[in-house]
Structure formats: C-alpha cells, structure tokens
Amino acid sequence: MHIPVIATIAALWSLIFQQCYVAQARGPVTYVVGDDLGWTLEANPESWTRGKKFYAGDILEFKYDTDEANVVVVEKKDHDDCSVSETAVFYTSGDDNIQLVFGANYFICSDLPNQCAGGMKMAINATSRPPRPLRAH
C-alpha cells in the first residue's frame, strides 16, 4: 500500500470513530438536603451526605421553615466548634440553593441555639466532575 492510501484509511477511521463515540460530562445535579424531610434535625444532615459523591457545579437545595432553621456556610474550625465567625455566609429564605465549587469544602450548619451541637451540620467536599463514559451512536 502506498502512504497516501494508508493516510486516507487512517483519516477515515478517525472520522468514523469521532462520529460513533462522544464523550460527554455529567451535568450538575441538584440535591435536596435531607430529601423529603428537608433541612431539619430529623433528616440527620451528617448521615444524609454518606454514600453521596458531590462534584463541582452540583447544587445543594436547602428547604426549611424559616422560624426553625437557617443555613450558614462556615470555615472548618467553626463547623467543628459549632461557632460562627465574621467570614460566615447566612441564608434565610427557606429555599436556598448553594452551588458547589471544585476543591472547596463546605461546612454548613444552622446557627440557631443547640441545632449545630444536635447534629444539624455537614461537611461536603466537591471533587472534579468525571467524564461520562464513551458511548456508541
């Protein structure tokens, strides 16, 4: 076979491969924190995160009664101590959405009396999104 014929065959195979297989990334997922119970002590937020894999871009939706809870994003030390420092970010709408960022750990708790110490907190590590497996068309 001549070199131009081999190059042409290789180019055709490359085009066929590109047309048959597409790599797509998984899009963001929205998680309702606590599922049907929402952002409550009964939902046991620390346990709710177990077994879930969170990726950058995923969204945490916090649904709660504003008379009974709020959402506060804090530093790790504050999460561990159930305290709130000047760097904390407060959410109080009752239906708050927080998008996870790659590499950031989110330490989220309610600052209302005794709730954090009672278990209304969680730590999340958002990792990079894996590519979706190749699939045939």
UniProtKB/TrEMBL annotation:
<keyword id="KW-0186">Copper</keyword>
<dbReference type="InterPro" id="IPR041844">
    <property type="entry name" value="Plantacyanin"/>
</dbReference>
<keyword id="KW-0479">Metal-binding</keyword>
<dbReference type="GO" id="GO:0046872">
    <property type="term" value="F:metal ion binding"/>
</dbReference>
<dbReference type="InterPro" id="IPR039391">
    <property type="entry name" value="Phytocyanin-like"/>
</dbReference>
<feature type="signal peptide">
    <location>
        <begin position="1"/>
        <end position="25"/>
    </location>
</feature>
<dbReference type="GO" id="GO:0009055">
    <property type="term" value="F:electron transfer activity"/>
</dbReference>
<dbReference type="Pfam" id="PF02298">
    <property type="entry name" value="Cu_bind_like"/>
</dbReference>
<keyword id="KW-1015">Disulfide bond</keyword>
<dbReference type="InterPro" id="IPR003245">
    <property type="entry name" value="Phytocyanin_dom"/>
</dbReference>
<feature type="domain" description="Phytocyanin">
    <location>
        <begin position="29"/>
        <end position="128"/>
    </location>
</feature>
<protein>
    <recommendedName>
        <fullName>Basic blue protein</fullName>
    </recommendedName>
</protein>
<dbReference type="InterPro" id="IPR008972">
    <property type="entry name" value="Cupredoxin"/>
</dbReference>
<dbReference type="GO" id="GO:0005886">
    <property type="term" value="C:plasma membrane"/>
</dbReference>
<keyword id="KW-0732">Signal</keyword>
